[in-house]
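[Meeting: bench + compute handoff]

Bench side (C.D.) handed over the final construct sequence. Compute side (W.E.) agreed to return the predicted structure before the next meeting so the bench team could plan truncations. Sequence as handed over:
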Amino acid sequence: MRRIVFAGIALLAAGAFLPEAAGAAPDTLIWHGDHLAAIRGGQRNEHIDLALATLKVKTRAAQKNGVYSVVDKKLVPASGDRHDYASFGRYWWPNPNTPDGLPYVRRDGEVNPQMLAAGDRVRLSRFCDDVEACALAGYLLKDDRAADYAARLVRVWFLEKATQMRPRLRYAQAVPGRTEGRGAGVLDARNFLRIIDSIACLRACDAWSDDDQAALIAWFAEYLQWLRTSPIADDERSANNNHGVWFDAQEAGVACFVGEADYAAQVLKKACAERLPHSLDGQGRQPHELTRTQSLHYSMFTMEAWFVLARLGERLDIDVWDAVTEDGVGLRAGLRYPAWHLTRQDEWPHPMLSRYQLSDGAMSVLMLAADRWGDAVFLQAINEAPRKPDGRAFAALRFRPPPHENSAGN
């Protein structure tokens, strides 16, 4: 067995062993299914052990949270139907120059907690977190109770008529006094990709039936049709910043899930040919994100979407990883610029309201990048960049660790 070193730190503890036969790997879109299968079969190292311990805690908490549904919200969307997802733009605040506060005004990077809490946005985030934790526990730890709970959560949100969400985002990221819904709201559903990979884990441990799968595919097929035809969705598709990249990632991922691989391939090819030149300048910087008040965050956030597209490209035999602009820059340069500053944030020459902390999604991107390129910049960021204190640390479960023996100082 090869020795795996993670930025100069041995990942395989003394006494680590080869995994037992784990059966077929889950057919995940983004996560490394073979890595998941190896963990289920017994593969361990210190990082996996730590992540599994965290997973157990998160899974126990998830099962106490209850189920989630869009019909639980107090407000009624403009459609008059609580089955419609609804949310509000989080950077919008009451207008100080009008008696009624309308129309709301934007303060980029400053979260209005009332806007964030209203509607379904927080509910959707917690739903996705709990499904992911329980599905991973069900598959990796062979926890049947957790797997069944994850399946129940998904059925309530998507499939049961009394509680299901309508497959559209017509009333997402509304702004009081301005609009009842915006294309920007499509971004709210980017975590549906985590649901799709969670379902693959549930399928692999027999917690999700063929009938469940058929019904969920039908729901997402209708959602994909909305993404393809809605004027609101088209507004998001035309965005040149992180919103546009995440739209492509979401649309292509959903297309793969519902069996429209040819359409997904079209999305990826167009992203490489047209989206990438708008996303990166000749030095690998992201001009649309660098003007934001949280520019380091958004630079990393956009790269998360690009790496989703790269993983989908592996599935569709389209090389997004090495796609480059006319200036010869691609994903490696695009990630390297913000990643270098993750451990040198005082040297970041762009707006930053607060210091950046790595999310689990950003950690996953760094792991994928280090695995592919063995770049010391990515390895150093993995080991030294500050992490969010939310306790979500599942990247070591979803993705293979980088096998390179490069020290972060090299």
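W.E. noted at the follow-up: The radius of gyration is 21 Å. C.D. will use this when planning the next construct.
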